Amino acid sequence: MKLGYSMFSFSENIDLKDIFSNVSLMKYDGVEPVLSEEGYLNPSMREGEVLEIKKMANANGLEIPSVGVWSLWDNNPVSNDLSIRKKAVDIIERQLEFASILGADTILVIPGYTHCSFAKNPEKVAYNVAYDRAYELFFKLEKVAREYKVSIGIENVWNKFLLSPLEIRKFLDDINSEYVGSYFDVGNIMYIGDPSDYIEILGRHIKKIHISDYRVEQSGLGAFVDIFAGDVDFFEVIKSLKKIGYDDYLMLEMLPNYKRLPELSIYSNKPAMDRLKYMYETL
Where in this chain does the record put each Xylose isomerase-like TIM barrel domain (predicted)? Predict the structure, then answer.
């Protein structure tokens, strides 16, 4: 079991050198960079520029096990606009390429949304149409992922799509590839279900785990809190992870992060992350 810190916790223009140094100081094992249109990792970069990020991480004793993406909220993979869907494919293919360069074995993607209130230009997509488009998309992208030997992990992330664990499992079973699976966020699922149920049902399909916590009596993004300050039953989560044989990264995501000095969450949440690892080793 390894512990990581996701750059989803910060803006797309953060100083990676400073953040990587802080993450290393707190003895995390890895970091998760995030692709965006104009940030520190963006589609216009050349291989040498991407490699500099890997060198920076390695110089701090950090691995890069996964790569996230911001851009798919504004380029919905199941959009009603064909040009947007094509742009989403380009983004994911670039993400796979960069992950391969960085030495990551997984990318995190949004499988698409049927409705979203926080995209710049949100649209509504019929659920059944979204499902068919998503299946076609990831069935094709599986071949690209296989070429790069990088898995695609679709995340459960407030997208009003692929809501049930049974539905997600069927979706992944039908694609039937070791290179298309689930990037499961334990906090994201709290508004509609129990993370332990999802973990045990998704089982072998889980590629990576995002760690976040959520208070169910609140609502929206403001309900996400420090680890063990919310309602995620982490004891049951760890038991379920052990039950399915998961022994990969626990990647901490603080989103939204602290309004001031967000890098302090690297320090304040490390004891909680260490406790999760201890629980895994001793339960």
Answer: 24-255
